[in-house]
Recover the amino acids of this structure.
């Protein structure tokens, strides 16, 4: 119902989208996205997990100490006959055996696997940091795109408002001319049809504007019906150069950086596989307390303490050639990561080159459409003055209206497409400001 209410207000020509609304700046929109967006928050938590996992203990460098206690109790009914003929009968005899202590195991050498694992954990942390940057770039880029879409739609709404005002003037003029007998009914009907067409166009623009607002509210993680307006100015960066863009993409593109880190992770995986060729040396030790109590036999109660220590060394002598197979597989996987890097780099270069061609074409198109818009506006102003004094036909006046409206739409659309291309280029090169 709220949406229908807005549409009716727009249809009546009341510019509610200009009044009583807070201006949301691009900087505010980006700040809210960085703070609230779910994907970015999830990526931050994933980074915290990987940061927490980077420890020497997780890499297997520290000893493992265990404490244990065992308490076994037995209740017996027993009859005993000794060699001297003496007989003993015990009911409910309770036998207690208790063992408790601590033990330690420490692998002091495992073929350098623990060191490779620790370095791999660090690279996993770097991977999470890069994936966080990728998530931020993706969402900030979406905010840029949606924000400037709203800017374009606001400019188009202003244009259609002015078109509707002129169409209303034309309709009132036609009615007055018809009332005094200087115009036919057909002129009134044509003016009314054209006005309705303009209002219909505005309703469609309002719908698109409302949908874009919902999208931006979703990115900012705020109530979807939050009302605001954006700035209308779209500034295009015309200083981008292809060689610099490609160089930046090779250094900063997050997707390419992910592939580089994956290669390092696989290199440490190869080292861990190779470590199985070396012996494993472990130290062990323990301290235990033993207590036993029984109501029958020669010894009814005993306690003991013991300390044990030693080491274990093991070496894989033959495992059915599985070690060779595992190493070959790991090396092939490492080769694949290099191929993925080269493929990703080529794709990014291709995307940058293609977008740059569109960027140059769209800049030229914006300049042309800006001139066309100025000409169309001048033509509309002149035509309106002639229409006021009755020296031009209504159909010629309508043509001037349509030409101006189309010129504004082409110009604003060209500016939006150019800005979107610029944003995509900066996203690919990892240089998008946030």
């Amino acid at each position: 119902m709220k949406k229908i209410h807005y549409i009716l207000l727009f249809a009546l020509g009341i510019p509610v989208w200009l009044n009583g609304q807070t201006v949301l700046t691009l900087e505010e929109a980006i700040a809210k996205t960085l703070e609230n967006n779910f994907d970015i928050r999830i990526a931050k938590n994933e980074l915290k997990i990987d940061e927490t996992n980077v420890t020497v203990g997780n890499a297997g460098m520290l000893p493992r100490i265990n404490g244990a206690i065992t308490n076994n109790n037995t209740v017996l009914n027993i009859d005993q006959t000794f060699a001297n003929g003496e007989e003993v009968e015990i009911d409910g005899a309770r036998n207690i055996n208790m063992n408790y202590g601590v033990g330690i195991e420490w692998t002091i050498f495992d073929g350098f696997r623990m060191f490779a694992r620790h370095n791999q954990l660090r690279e996993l942390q770097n991977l999470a940091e890069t994936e966080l940057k990728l998530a931020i770039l993706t969402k900030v880029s979406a905010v840029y795109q949606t924000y400037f879409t709203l800017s374009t739609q606001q400019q188009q709404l202003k244009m259609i408002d002015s078109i509707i005002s002129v169409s209303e003037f034309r309709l009132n003029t036609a009615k007055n001319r018809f009332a005094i007998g200087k115009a036919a009914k057909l002129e009134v009907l044509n003016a009314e049809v054209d006005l309705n067409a303009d209002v219909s166009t505005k309703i469609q623009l309002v719908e698109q504007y409302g949908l874009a607002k919902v999208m931006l509210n979703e990115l900012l993680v705020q109530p979807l019906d939050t009302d605001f307006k954006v700035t209308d100015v779209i500034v295009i960066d015309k200083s981008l150069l292809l060689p610099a863009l490609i160089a930046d993409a090779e250094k900063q593109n997050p997707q390419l950086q992910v592939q580089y880190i994956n290669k390092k992770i696989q290199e440490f995986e190869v080292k861990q596989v190779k470590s199985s060729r070396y012996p494993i040396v472990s130290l062990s030790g323990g301290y235990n307390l033993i207590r036993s109590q029984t109501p029958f036999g020669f010894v009814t109660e005993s306690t003991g303490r013991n300390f044990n220590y030693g080491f274990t060394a093991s070496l894989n002598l033959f495992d059915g050639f599985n070690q060779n197979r595992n190493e070959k597989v790991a090396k092939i996987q490492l080769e694949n990561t290099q191929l993925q890097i080269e493929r990703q780099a080529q794709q990014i270069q291709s995307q940058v080159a293609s977008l740059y061609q569109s960027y140059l074409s769209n800049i030229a198109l914006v300049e042309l459409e800006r001139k066309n818009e100025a000409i169309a506006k001048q033509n509309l102003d002149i035509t309106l003055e002639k229409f006021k004094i009755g020296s031009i036909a209504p159909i010629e006046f309508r043509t001037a209206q349509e030409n101006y409206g189309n010129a504004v739409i082409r110009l604003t659309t060209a500016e939006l497409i150019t800005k979107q291309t610029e944003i995509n280029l900066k996203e690919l090169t990892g240089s998008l400001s946030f």
Observations:
- The radius of gyration is 40 Å.
- Strands lie at 64-81, 87-109, 280-293, 301-314.
- The chain is about 65% helix and 15% strand.
